[in-house]
Structures are given as C-alpha cells and as structure tokens.
Amino acid sequence: MAFHGVSLGYDLGMPKTLAAGLNEDDLILKNLNFELPAGSFHFLTGPSGSGKTSLLKMIYLAQKPTTGVIELFGETIRPHDRAQTAGLRRRLGIIFQDFRLLEHLNVFDNAALPLFVHGAHFHEYHDDVTELLNWVGLKNRLDAMPNVLSGGEKQRLAIARAVVTRPTLILADEPTGNIDYAMGLRIMRLFIELNRLGATVLIATHDEGLVKASGMPVLELRQGQLFQRDVSEGVR
Ligand SMILES: Nc1ncnc2c1ncn2[C@@H]1O[C@H](COP(=O)(O)OP(=O)(O)OP(=O)(O)O)[C@@H](O)[C@H]1O
Ligand SMILES: [Mg+2]
Question: What is the CA(68)–ligand 1 centre distance, in A?
Fold first, then answer.
C-alpha cells in the first residue's frame, strides 16, 4: 500500500475536483507520500478531525483522493474501475468506527457473512467462526441480535467479521474505542497474531496506552501531514 502525492479536500460533502479550484487551506490531507510495506504493522494517530478516517476511506476505496495516486497490492487504484475496486476490496478487512453490523442477522451470522458471501458452506466455516467469536469474548452471545449487544460487544463483533476472511490488509478505525483496557490488549494480541501470519495492519486510534503497550511504529497526522514516529522515540 502506498500514497503518492495524495491530497484530500471536502466541499459540502463532495470531494473537490481540481477543476473546482484547489485551495491549499481547504485540504484535510496534504501531499501525503508514504508506504506501508506488506506485512508491516502501524498505528495511525492524530487529533480528532485530523483526517484518520478520511485517510482509511481512501485506502478502502470509499473516498477518491483530490490529487495523487494510491497503490494497493501493487496495483494503481483506478477510482472508476468497479471490477478493480471489488477485487481489491475482497482482500481488505475493515473495522468501521461505527461498526456497520447487519441488524437482522445474529452475532454468528454477522461474523460469518463475508465467508457466506464468498460462497463458503456452513460446515466449512462453523468451527473457525466459533473460535474467533470465542477469542473476542462473544462465545455466549452467538444467537444474540446486534440491537441487544453492548457497545463493546458490537465492536468486538465488527472486529471478528473484519478478520474472518484472513484479509491481506486490515484497516481498523478506533477498534478499541468502546472496550476496556484488558479486552483492548486481547484485541491487540489478535491483530499482532494476524500480522505474524502475514497480514499488513493499520490501526487508527487515540489510545496512547495501547500504542505504548504494543510498541509498534506510529504514523501521526498533524495539520494535514503525516509524521513517522519511531518506536525508539517512545510516546510523547
Ligand atoms: N464527507 C465529508 N464532508 C465534509 N467534511 C468531512 C467529511 N468527512 C470528514 N470531513 C471533515 O474532515 C475532517 C477529518 O475528518 P475525519 O473523520 O477523517 O477525522 P478523524 O481524524 O477520523 O477524527 P476522529 O478522531 O474524531 O474520528 C473533519 O474536519 C471532518 O469534519
Ligand atoms: Mg475517525
């Protein structure tokens, strides 16, 4: 995954086009150039409103950059190429800041949905999905519907659903925002394990405690620019 000269500005909810005239001050993200090597693990931090979710959205192809080019799995993203978008998205695991669970499916079916959609059969994924839900502490909630889950339970379900397909790139937007510290550490262990198994991981978070505890490198957004914070520098 790489950004080459990527800028983003919003205009009344619509991405600005170059033709509409680009004012440097209106840009949320300014000329970002960085690479996430395959198999790497990074946190993405920065104040509220600094553009973390916006940056992730561009990676998961829900937002077109105003300028610049994004590379994903060695392919240059062509924003209007639907076939390419669908193919690339299949290799992503996304944990949305607002969960996006399907309200009419129970916990098990929400977690299994990506596998079901890919054509897998119940007997093929039953054990994997159950084990994963066990890991995120939802073993006793398999039949529960999303509307009765606590915020933290919803978040853990969203995490399970995002990683159930063993994605090549995991993008998590505040994945521990609603859960206690101990569960947060457990979830981090899951991400670290998936990273060991080969996944590239990028986690947007405000949670400096978790960042510190896991000792992974940090990309920090400030005034539209991205700064690399080395592990050895510690946390300011
Ligand atoms: N669709 C949109 N239209 C207009 N402005 C937007 C849109 N989405 C985000 N913004 C603005 O872009 C800026 C960055 O928002 P973004 O959600 O990326 O920040 P964030 O770093 O994820 O914040 P938080 O930590 O609060 O989640 C904010 O000022 C926000 O209001
Ligand atoms: Mg956000």
Answer: 19
